[in-house]
Amino acid sequence: MSDMIILAENLQHFPICEEISKKSGVKPIFIQSRQHFEALLNLLRESESAPVVSGDLIELAPDIQFDLRRHLIHRQGNVYPLSSTEFKIMQSLSSQLGIPCQTMDLIDAVWGVHGHIGLDSLYVYIRRLREKIENNPSRPQLLITHHGFGYELRTLSSLEPTAPH
Q1: What keyword terms does UniProt attach to this protein (predicted)?
Q2: Angle at 47 between CA 90 and CA 54, to 5 degrees
Q3: What is the DSSP pairing of strand 72-75 with strand 78-81?
Q4: Rounded CA gap, 7 and 133, in Å?
Q5: Please, which residues bridge with residue 134 across strands?
């Protein structure tokens, strides 16, 4: 069974789509122009390289998972519990995988806008998280510092080199 039906917008297709939707539960997507179709295709291609999210697990790498429900990191057969603060940091960063998060936005998300937390405390938590998710915490590949800006949580798929243009 298909997960999606994409059709050019055309009123003559509407009765057919209604019938398909009733029988399969799949909602059709109508595309108005070639540009919209190309944009949708690009989004679908990008989603193919998205991290594997299975239930409450986010796969950062084949042997590294972030367990949202149990507040754990699974790495190479070992289980690392997360403190509530470590969990909030991971939850905030994983909500925008591959996108750098400003330091102050991260602090606001974890400790609140009026939270009195120094940057040194954040650095300590980031170091602890790297010890749990990185194979080599001194040379991080998943939890990246963007000096003067903030932090980014990446997945292994975002580390793979792209083909030259």
Answers
A1: DNA-binding, Transcription, Transcription regulation
A2: 50
A3: antiparallel
A4: 43
A5: none
Domain boundaries, the chain: 5-48, 53-159
Fold of the CATH domain 53-159: Arc Repressor Mutant, subunit A (1.10.10)
Whether the CB-CB separation of 145 and 67 falls below 8 Å is answered with no
105-137 pLDDT per residue, tens: 999 989 887 767 878 899 999 999 999 999 999
81-90 contacts at long range (C-beta below 8 A, 24 or more positions apart): 82/129, 82/132, 83/128, 85/110, 85/125, 86/125, 86/128, 86/129, 86/132, 89/125, 89/126, 89/129, 90/66, 90/129, 90/153
| Secondary structure of 95-144 as H, E, C letters | CCCCCCEEHHHHHHHHHCCCCCCCHHHHHHHHHHHHHHHCCCCCCCCCEE
> What residues does 102 pair with on adjacent strands?
150
